Amino acid sequence: MPKTDPDKEKKQRRVFLKQAADMLEETKKQLLREIRGRVKEETEGVKDDGRDTYDLASDERDREINFILNAREREKLLAIDEALQRIKGKTYGLCESCEGEIQLGRLKVLPFTRLCVRCQEENEKENKRQKTLEDERGYRKLVMNDFEEEGF
Ligand SMILES: [Zn+2]
Question: Which CATH number does the domain 6-114 belong to among 3.40.50, 3.40.630, 1.10.3470, 1.20.120?
Answer without folding.
Answer: 1.20.120
